[in-house]
Amino acid sequence: MEIAQILASKAIVPCAKVTCKRQLLQLAAERASEVVGLDAHQIFETLKEREQLGSTGLGDGIAIPHGKLKGLDGVHCILIRLEHGIEFEAVDDKPVDLAFVLLAPQGSGADHLKALSRIARLTRTPGLMERLRKMQSAEDIHEFLTREAEETNAA
Known about the structure:
Layout: H1 3-6, E1 12-16, H2 21-36, H3 40-53, E2 57-59, E3 62-63, E4 66-69, E5 76-86, E6 96-105, H4 109-123, H5 128-133, H6 138-154
Parallel strand pairs: 1-5, 3-6, 4-6
Antiparallel strand pairs: 2-3, 5-6
Helix pairs in contact: 2-3
Organism: Maritalea myrionectae
Pfam family, one: PTS_EIIA_2
InterPro entries: PTrfase/Anion_transptr, PTS_EIIA_type-2_dom, PTS_SugarTrans_NitroReg
């Protein structure tokens, strides 16, 4: 599963000003609602319930909040780059400033796991997240991520 298949330019928030996990999840739900056409409250509740099971903060400033929803047509990613890191109960206790929010249809076990795996691999690419953190526009971020993902797969 490629980033270009699940991340649209309109699904990227390049400089979010949130101060806590709840605000981040609310912003993600609002943007996801615009992208996928589902109710923002339903999306927020799904993300919140998943976070209550355990933080999706991977470390190094990165989190991958995720959930499954009825009515989705496929896997979607919402990328939020924060102006300032926030407490997220990440495994390394460092603030999170990049959130790759994944939403998948209910019953999409394999596709959901492939997307999670793909994002996790991408975040571990040396230097990639540092470069991403410097970008200011959604279009630049989208072009960069889709190009880098292709190059990472080709290697």
